[in-house]
Each structure stands twice: as structure tokens, then as C-alpha cells.
Amino acid sequence: MDKEVNTPQHIRPNFQNIPFWNPTKILDHEIGKHVHRMDLNECPYPPSPKVIEAMQNVADTLNRYPDGTCPELTPLIAERTGVPAGNITWGGGSTQLLTSIAEISVAPGQNLVAPNLVWKRFDGVFKIVDASVTSVPNNADGSIDVEALTNAIGNDTRLLVCVTPNNPTGMMLNEDEIRHVSENTPENVLLFMDEAYHEFAIHAGGPDALNILKDRKGPWVITRTFSKAYALAGVRLGYAICSSPDTVDAIRMVSSTFNLNGFAEAAAIAAWHDPEYTKFILDKNMEERDRIIAGLREMSYEPMQSVTNFVACDIGRPGMEIVKAMRERGIRIATVGGDDFVNYIRVSMGIPEDTDAFLRELKDVLGRLSTKTII
Ligand SMILES: Cc1ncc(COP(=O)(O)O)c(C=O)c1O
Q1: Measured from the CB, is residue 238 less than 6 Å from ligand 1?
Q2: Do 114 and 136 contact (CB within 8 A), yes or no?
Q3: Nearest to 15, CA basis, from 132, 120, 123, 95
Q4: Domains of the chain
Q5: Which helix (H) or strand (E) holds 88?
Q6: Among 370, 265, 279, residue whose Cα is nearest residue 325
Q7: Taking the mean position of all CA atoms in its chain, how far away is CA 28?
């Protein structure tokens, strides 16, 4: 039968023929084996013991629906950021908020502007809202070209997407670049800054985008997450800091009624109150990042300037080839995507043993590839 006949009529055209990709899938050869998970930018350390205790303490309330406004956690964020509690809302991971933000601002066929090289999930988000996307090439070094980005805004643009630090490059925007985006995005366009790696940027001495966006006249929204620096990826909790409460209301409208789980708020409060543990995570991450960068340089590669918990690097041959070979050896890393970056790999920071295994096996894989005797 030809493809036309098979086209499912019950699915909107923009959702057809999109194969499901399961990022956490365990392959047959990995079952029962130790796998170095260095592909999903996770925190390699377990949550703080205080978090685990707090989760145990709320376990007997799980028969009830949780309050998705996080009434005890929101004031803590408000106090730290200086943003009113009414301007903050929550998602099941910041991933959920990305979709909500696009949904509230861009109607089907309307325009949004985004850098070409950003987190792959954005492609899915743009499909969901059926937007007309202006994809702006990144600079040759992978960084976001902020001038090109704001120059691409047209009369029908509703949303500008920016990510700092960016995934998959790990690079952050500097203060001037954030200010440029803030000041050159018109007042009728929602400026969306994804800051999933915010804590890593601050730890590296980078700017706080919020302090700059606060001065913006037009609407803006910043998303952050408890998945990375707070070691809570499995809890699924992210938040949006918005320029006004009407954005919060609109995001809540498009979120499902009970979109958070019953552990999330208690876990996040405990993590928030344990800054020593977060510092431990950020310090350890930096140590391993330095080791990975040094190791790659020793092999004569020059990684991108990452401030995050992952490093991207031009490896001089198709990244997918290396990803597959490394996976055979129990080391999961990722490609970078984007036509100009096919020769790149991205590796997430793990514990010291993960770094050792990554550098050892990469050297071996590349050595064998260069003599074409890879196994
Ligand atoms: C740039 C970026 N934004 C958002 C997320 C989503 O994180 P979460 O849904 O766990 O908050 C990720 C995850 O890797 C990311 O890399």
C-alpha cells in the first residue's frame, strides 16, 4: 500500500510520521550492565539526603491532588529573585513550560524566531504549535548570534526564543548580548529565555538574565529547573518567571489541571534549603568538566566553551559514528545536531569514574577508527 493511503486521518498533519524517540531506552546489550549515562545532562549524584527525607514525609499524602501553584515554594523563589509570587508558575519539568509558552503566544501559522542550534526538544514544540519558524544560524563557533536573531524579527513575529547557557553548546550569552536581545525585541513580542542551566552559569561567574530582563518594557518569561543543579530530574519540576501575572494565568490555562506530582514541592523546598549540597554538585561538575576539557585537548581536540554540565566537541568525523561506538562500550554520549555540527559529540559530566571511562574509551575508539579497525 502506498504511503498516502496509510496516512492516519485522525492525527493532525503536523504530528504525522514522527517516530517516537525514547531518550532513556536501555538497549539489549546494556541490560544488567553498568552504563555510564553521559548523554542526558543529568546530575550524576543522588538528591540530597534532606530531599529524600522530605519526600518520605509527604508520601502518605499522595492520595490527594497536589497544589500546582506550589504555595510554599513560590514565596522562596519570589524572595530570592525579587519577582512577585504572582509572576511565577510551575511545570512538570521546564520541558512542559516550553510548550505552554509557545502555545500561549503563537497561533498556528504565526511566526516565531529561534536560533538554529538549540535543544532538540524545541523542534517538537514548534511542531506542536504549528508555527512558521524563522531559524537563525548560530555563529561559526556555535554561539548564538544575537544580532541576527533580533534582526530576524518581523511584523508577524509573536515569540523570540533564546537559550542561555545553550544546549547543546554549553555556551552562555554575556551581559551585553542579553541586553541586546532584551532591548531589540519589540514590545509586542514575547521574549522567552530558557535558563535550564542558570545555576551553572552563575557558578561560572556569568550574568543573571533576570536582572537584565526586569528592565525590559515588553513581555518576557524565563524558565528554570530543579532537574540539573538540584539533582531532581526524576521529580519533574521547573518554573517560569514571568513579566506579568497574565502570562502566568495563560500558562496555567494550557497546563493540565494537576500537572505536578505530589512529591515535587516538598522535594524542591528541601533542595532549596540545602545550598551546601547544590554547591557540592556545582563544584564537582566543574572539576569533571575541567578534566574532560583537558583530556580532549590532550587528544588535540578543542571543545566548545562550556559553562554547563556537558561539553560539546568537534571530533573531526561524524559524531553519530562515535556515539554508536561508545555506546557499544557502555558509554552513552550524544550528537549535537545541526547541519554545521555533524562532526560534534556532546558529553554530560558524570562522577570521576565516568570521566575516566569516557576519555579512555574515546581515545581507543578514535585510534581504531583512524586505522579503520573499529570493533
Ligand atoms: C536547554 C534545556 N531546557 C530545558 C530542559 C528541560 O529540563 P527539565 O524538563 O528537566 O526541566 C533541558 C533538558 O535537558 C535543556 O537542556
Answers
A1: yes
A2: yes
A3: 123
A4: 3-46+275-370 (3.90.1150.10), 59-272 (3.40.640.10)
A5: strand 88-91
A6: 370
A7: 28
Query: Which among 210, 205, 180 has a CA at the least distance from the CA of 194?
Result: 210
Containing H/E element for 357? helix 352-370
* 10-residue averages of pLDDT along the chain (375 residues): 65 85 91 95 98 98 97 98 98 97 97 96 94 96 97 98 98 98 98 98 98 97 98 98 98 94 98 98 98 98 97 96 97 93 97 98 93 58
Which ligand 1 atom is nearest residue 163's CA?
1
Measured in Å, residue 75 CA sits from the centre of ligand 1 at: 23
List the grid coordinates of 244: 506579568
Q: Which residues contact 93 (CB under 8 A, 6 or more apart)?
A: 225, 227, 233, 236, 237, 238
Ligand 1 centroid – CA 154 distance (Å): 28
Residue 125 cell numbers, joined: 514544540
Helix (H) or strand (E) run with residue 6 in it: helix 3-6
DSSP three-state, residue 58? helix
CA angle, corner 248, sides to 259 and 211, nearest 5? Answer: 115
- Residue 372: per-residue pLDDT: 64
Return the ligand 1 atom nearest residue 96 CA. 9
The count of other CB atoms within 10 Å of the CB of residue 303 is 22
